[in-house]
Amino acid sequence: MSFIEDLNISIEKYCSDLLYSYEFEKVEEFYQGMGALKKFENKNLKIQIVNDRGLINLDISSKYGDENYRDVELIKSLIELDALSNEKIGKWERNKILNQNLDLISQCNFIIENIETLAKLFDRKNYKKTIKKIDKVGFERSHKLFE
Q1: For residues 45 and 123, what is the distance between their CA atoms, to the nearest angstrom?
Q2: Do 101 and 73 touch, CB atoms closer than 8 A?
């Protein structure tokens, strides 16, 4: 099975609820060698689903400005850390939030469960600040991996 075929099967099996329920339309498809990607957008968000050498991941970008896709796992970490910002959390709990890994169906379900929050984070007013915050979380996560 080719990488694009595997991606198509995964999208149909795990992402169809997200794509159809929130009216995402395919805007681009690319595949070459050991990778494939499909890009979708609706009135609020852009998403891309990528098959990189058999690892399938979902990224989100704002509809505004340059395409600036960010990993759903990092976005989930950001939302969870922001929700706990008024609480004192320990190092172990923070690392647990930063280092979570989601399979494709969990990534899609996260978007479905948080679609309004995501639309607000990536709207015209907030997307630049959101990208900076996601990058800060990503830096912290990568720093923890190499400590």
Answers
A1: 8
A2: yes
pTM metric for this prediction: 0.91
Residue 80: partners with Cβ closer than 8 Å, 6 or more residues away: 97
pLDDT tens column, 59-68: 999 999 889 9
Full residue range of the structural domain in which residue 112 is found: 3-145
In this structure, how many other beta carbons lie within 10 angstroms of the beta carbon of residue 107?
A: 26
Angle at which helix 91-98 crosses helix 72-83, to 10 degrees, equals: 150
Residues in CB range of 47: below 8 A, 6 or more apart: 24, 39, 40, 41, 58, 59, 60, 61, 111
Q: How many domains does the chain have?
A: 1
